[in-house]
Amino acid sequence: MANTPHGGVLKDLVARDEHISEHLKAEAATLGDLTLTERQLCDLELILNGGFSPLEGFMNECDYNSVIDTLRLSDGTLFPVPITLDISSGDIKRLGLSPTARIVLRDPRDDEALAILTVEDVYTYDRVKEAIQVFGADDPAHPSVAYLRNRAKEYYVGGKVQAIQAPAHFDYVAFRYTPAELRAHFKKLSWRRVVAFQTRNPMHRAHRELTVRAARQQQANVLIHPVVGLTKPGDVDHYTRVRVYQAIMAKYPNGMAHLALLPLAMRMAGPREALWHAIIRKNFGATHFIVGRDHAGPGKNSQGRDFYGPYDAQELVERFKDELQIKMVPFQQMTYVPATDEYMPVDEILADVQTLDISGTELRRRLKTGVAIPDWFSYEDVVEKLRESYPPRNKQGFVLFLTGLYNSGKDAIAKALQVALNEQGGRSVSLLGESIDDSSQKLDLTLDARHENLQKIAFVASELARAGAAVIAAPTSPEERSRTFVKDKIVSSSGAGGNFFLIHVATPLAHCEGTDRRGLYARARSGATSGFVGVDVKYEIPKQADLVVDASVQSIPAIVHSIILLLETSSLI
After folding, report:
1. φ, ψ for residue 118 (rounded to 5)?
2. Among 32, 139, 332, 547, which is 20 to 30 Å from 385 by CA?
3. What's this model's pTM, rounded to 2 decimal places?
4. Which helix (H) or strand (E) element contains residue 195?
5. CA–CA gap between residue 540 and residue 534 (Å, rounded)
């Protein structure tokens, strides 16, 4: 029998509102709308299908503050992570948001109306407090803190939603289960005990061994429940990972395990996230949940230390075990013992016994360089899937992102780079300028319009780099937030092609203006145009450029050569 949903009732809003969905769709055509971000889309999907039960919408200010301070909703229900809908002041004004207003939430991929939100409140929030309370520190080395600082908009809007339809998926549809569907599957198979395993990484022999061991200890079946929404930037893309999961499922004893995909936007919040993951798996019907060492930790902080202690997550889940009503199975770190050709928990191995292991860093090095991966570590067909998606460095795509003032020389550098890389051969070379479409080639755009253009550039560049292309992008890009967005998109969405290099063409404004044959700076200073970067729009100096060049003192060939050397140093050419 599947576990009782968190809060007692599975909040399947799609099923609840099915009888009025056509009415809601007609109403949606008359309402103002908000196009969701990728993270908001993931959150909405799990609100709609009941994965976030007992939530029925995005948190209002009362629930938000309670979760931040106490890990509970305002009614006392345990819920450790704030689920919020961030919105800009411009959208608040455009949509006329105030209590009782209704707005449509749209899918960013196909513009389909997914739900109608009835506004309860619109409120500001303390980014620093949220970072410290939820993630443990206001440290931009944490990906969710960086998200709060650079991408989250300035207001939250709270309110319940009514479901028009669930988001459509066209990949791995057979493995995408709602909580109700997975519960029905468990019931059909008479699975009374289910151990859920959370992962955002490829699985290898050690993962198979620990999940089999957990299942046998608990006399249960195994749910392999990987995240395929948003994970940590730089993680293996979900397409590759799911192919790996499919391959490893055949290694389990017949009938022991089942694979289902979770469209979650992870926060990497360590202990709070582990508690959240347990609640989600409870809603999907699991009775047991494996909590790993440093579960959902983002790695090192700005001082080079782990954000969380190795067992903080296990301790927090254990603290709430009676209330959670899902049994925690502590992650047993497994290591290979050559003498017996088996994996064993490290705490069961004598000190003088030889063991072998390969770290994640070493695995990535072997994939990049083509070095053999031993069969004691992984399975041949798993390694084959990984190598298909992660070719050697000299076959991987990359993005060279040149940023600087108008007439700084970045466009000339970009064109010369295109020629130099074509001479190298081995890849297609794509050059992206100020924008993707001709309608936005003007240099006097608003900052928001520029940011929108850069979002388009980031999407196109990430797809090209994923396919192994060399991409050169040379927009003005005056804002740090836009450059950060582009980098995050490339790194997180381009698979093996997520090699990103920020090149600041730091030619001084005086030189750019003094050599401006078109007279655009003069027109901007006379007031004939507005929004011109360097005149009435500030250019924010990049904080972490991979290379800084200056066309006023360096020749174009010398600059191109320095960029080629940067690529050679990275083994990309």
Report:
1. -100, 115
2. 332
3. 0.83
4. strand 194-197
5. 10
How far is Cα 118 from Cα 140, in angstroms, rounded to an integer? Answer: 33
Rounded to an integer, what distance in angstroms lies between the CA atom of residue 71 and that of residue 51?
A: 18
200 catalytic residue (yes or no): yes
Q: Which of these, 376, 380, 370, 382, lies nearest to 357 by C-alpha position?
A: 376
Q: 106, 183, 200, 450: which is the annotated catalytic residue?
A: 200
**257/244 Cα distance (integer angstroms):** 15
For 38, phi then psi, to 5°, come to -60, -45
Catalytic residue among 4, 65, 201, 355: 201
Q: What is the spatial distance between Cα 562 and Cα 559, in angstroms, rounded to a whole number?
A: 5
What tokens appear for 164 in the block? Answer: 């028009």
Q: Which helix H or strand E contains 387, and what residues bound it?
A: helix 380-389
Sequence-ordered list of residues with C-beta below 8 angstroms from that of 552, at least 6 positions apart, any chain: 507, 508, 511
For the question of residue 199 being annotated catalytic, the response is yes
Which one, of 342, 369, 366, 370, lies nearest residue 356 by Cα? 342
Neighbour tally for 468: CB within 10 Å:
18
Low-confidence winner among 46-60, 181-195, 235-249 (lowest mean pLDDT): 235-249
Report pLDDT digits (tens) over 138-162.
999 999 999 999 899 999 999 999 9
Catalytic option among 37, 77, 199, 476: 199
Lateral strand order in the sheet of 429-432: 429-432, 470-473, 398-404, 500-505, 547-549
- Enter the tokens of residue 29: 């055509």
For tokens 């078109």, what's the residue?
A: 518
Tell me which H or E stretch contains 196: strand 194-197
Q: What is the DSSP string of 221-277?
A: EEEE--B-SB--TTPPPHHHHHHHHHHHHTTSPTTTEEE-BB--B----THHHHHHH
Structure tokens that stand for 31 in this block: 């309402």
If DSSP codes are grouped into helix, strand and coil, which group holds residue 158? Answer: strand
Buried b (16+ CB within 10 A) or exposed e, 96-117: ebeeebbbbbbbeeeeebbbbb
Tokens (6 digits) for 169:
């998926």
Give the DSSP letter of residue 546.
S
Residue 201 annotated among the catalytic residues of the structure: yes
- The mean pLDDT of the chain is 93
Rounded CA-CA distance 378/8 in Å is 41
